[in-house]
Design a protein that fits this description.
Elements lengths: L14 H4 L1 H5 L3 H6 L6 H18 L7 E5 L9 E5 L4 H19 L5 H4 L2
């Protein structure tokens, strides 16, 4: 899986526009996190979280996860990373995201009927 981006080069597109095709397919994590002001680095982390979540429900998506970031209007070599499921980065990402979701879930508002029991 590859994410292609622009970076901060002159004429570069922002991360929000870069991920619009994925947003159009209804990727919930990308849809809730990516905004025009999102940095390329933040968008890359978000894409990795989205791929991790997708792997949990879609067996056709799997490791290795490949990340490639190309700068707009440049022939420079892209920034590239390849991640296996057992890599320290993926393990840390899964742990941090999972713990954050649990904390957020516990803070969700309660239904009226919960308070009346």
């Amino acid at each position: 899986h590859t994410m292609v981006g622009a970076g901060k080069a002159e004429g570069a597109i922002d991360a929000g526009n870069m991920l619009k095709p994925a947003l159009a397919r209804g990727k919930p994590i990308l849809d809730r996190i990516i905004m025009t002001a999102t940095t390329l680095e933040g968008a890359a982390r978000c894409a990795m979280v989205s791929l991790d979540s997708t792997m949990r429900v879609n067996l056709s998506v799997g490791a290795p996860l490949e990340l490639a970031i190309y700068r707009a209007d440049s022939l420079e070599k892209p920034i590239q990373s390849v991640f296996e499921l057992q890599s320290p980065f993926i393990k840390s990402l899964q742990k941090s995201w999972g713990e954050g979701l649990q904390r957020a879930f516990k803070r969700l508002p309660r239904f009226d009927w919960e308070n009346s029991q």
